[in-house]
């Protein structure tokens, strides 16, 4: 299993590098976030040992559980070895219910899925209590698909301006999912649309300097996303081929848990 995981990780990174070459981008401009929602803690540990330190979870309670267990494991290794692998950065890529904000913040390096002002204000208020500034992304429904999380695409510039006034969140960029379709032209259109919005906000809307993250692309379409300009891709099943029986079809983080 360890060898298969290493091979899968190498293959995904090579695909990212090839997509970067086609888009005339340096490979270092893309962060690979390994989506761990289908795998065991054993596989997560192997992934960390293989050198992947950005990990994504779609369910807040699972992120907390896995992050805590991983920290404990690394602490034990530190006591024995002195220098274990680095602790991963955990990304929340799925919906965050407001009643889970307080418990989730201490474990999360970046929240990809802010899609309402009320959620942003709750994150801001709990961050103030903790004395921290929480990095977040604004999630857009870029494909205009009913039932999908994210604010309406035309509302993004105004929402960016509003969120940028909150003192205890740091709005770092935008996130979106590609459309649920085999139509390559449609997928590319949505990603290019997102990249144009991202660039427009950076240039014209007075966004802060740290507004530089464009999170889009999953196992089925991350190469298209990289070619369009994604800085972060969220890849799960392509990393775990031959290791687990992941659900078939597109990884849909937005359906992992219904709001409570």
Give a nutshell description of this structure.
This protein is 41% helix and 16% strand.
| Named CATH architecture | Alpha-Beta Barrel
* CATH class bucket: Alpha Beta
Count of domain modules: 1
Poorly predicted runs: 246-260
- Taken from the alpha-carbon principal axes, the silhouette is globular
> Given the structure, what is the number of helices?
8
**Tally of DSSP β-strands:** 9
Rg to the nearest angstrom? 18 Å
Ends distance: 37 Å
* Main sheet overview: 9 strands, parallel
CATH superfamily: Alanine racemase
Q: What's the rounded overall pLDDT mean? A: 91
Order of helices and strands: HEHEHEHEHEEHEHEHE
CATH topology: TIM Barrel
What brief labels describe this structure?
260 residues, alpha/beta, TIM Barrel, nine-stranded parallel β-sheet, 9 strands, globular
Topology record:
Blueprint: H1 2-22, E1 31-35, H2 41-49, E2 54-57, H3 60-81, E3 89-92, H4 101-104, E4 110-114, H5 117-130, E5 134-141, E6 151-152, H6 156-163, E7 169-175, H7 184-204, E8 213-215, H8 222-228, E9 232-235
Parallel strand pairs: 1-2, 1-9, 2-3, 3-4, 4-5, 5-6, 5-7, 7-8
Helix pairs in contact: 1-8
Structure explained in plain terms:
- It is a single chain.
- The chain is α/β, with parallel strands linked by helices and 260 residues long.
- It has one domain: Alanine racemase (TIM Barrel).
- It contains eight helices and nine strands.
- Strands 1, 2, 3, 4, 5, 6, 7, 8 and 9 form a nine-stranded parallel sheet that branches.
